Amino acid sequence: xxxxxxxxxxxxxxxxxxxxxxxxxxxxxxxxxxxxxxxxxxxxxxxxxxxxxxxxxxxxxxxxxxxxxxxxxxxxxxxxxxxxxxxxxxxxxxxxxxxxxxxxxxxxxxxxxxxxxxxxxxxxxxxxxxxxxxxxxxxxxxxxxxxxxxxxxxxxxxxxxxxxxxxxxxxxxxxxxxxxxxxxxxxxxxxxxxxxxxxxxxxxxxxxxxxxxxxxxxxxxxxxxxxxxxxxxxxxxxxxxxxxxxxxxxxxxxxxxxxxxxxxxxxxxxxxxxxxxxxxxxxxxxxxxxxxxxxxxxxxxxxxxxxxxxx
Length: 311
Ligand SMILES: [Zn+2]
Prior knowledge:
Structural class: alpha/beta
Bound molecules: zinc ion
Number of helices: 12
Strand order of the largest sheet: 9-8-7-10-11
């Protein structure tokens, strides 16, 4: 479940998606719940499914299987998802933070298959984070660890959805790319970006598309965003000493024009030996790492073990 889309899939223990569906997210809790039920029931049709894991943006209380706080998807806050959804889908349900799920997806099926230390950063409506150290997902005392999007990178910067100012999320998310595009367009009056800005509101996808066609305005937006992203990543590299930093979420479609400047910032700011070991790259599962990771985190309520590991 994301700020704009819901994606559901049936995933095998080998990481193959047998079926997929997509629906838009709703800001109404009732519609959101019925869309979830519909997506799950539709996608499982004809397959033998052992359980479901819902990957949601925000802080998930591990004990209660409930989203306590979700700045980019308020509709889901406070709903006892397990109690509400299980009777409507007839399957055991686990709830997990989306970026933790994405990190697990990359470790289990993507970039991390040969590593044990991985930091995942997802760039979408917000910025999510997941940290895997020694092959274990870092959860912290309350299950709230890894909120990498809410480290401060600019003390008096723009207001973040969390209420703070200058979080990495507000400087480098997919949403920030759209906002920055409007500012940068004024500096490149002859660019395709500036022309589009006069017609309508620019979103992150427009910038990726224009940058791929070589537009200098769009490339400048991605370079600036990449530098902010890299400032955050450099700190994560210093703190966690990961082998891989995987960048996922929709905004990673922008590719090298975004990741190149981020890598350069990591090279300038992170310390050796961590800096020399780490590889920063786009998630191999792209925006779907959360869906694959969620599947791998679905638990058997009887044994407490991951269903795909048992299969
Ligand atoms: Zn924040």
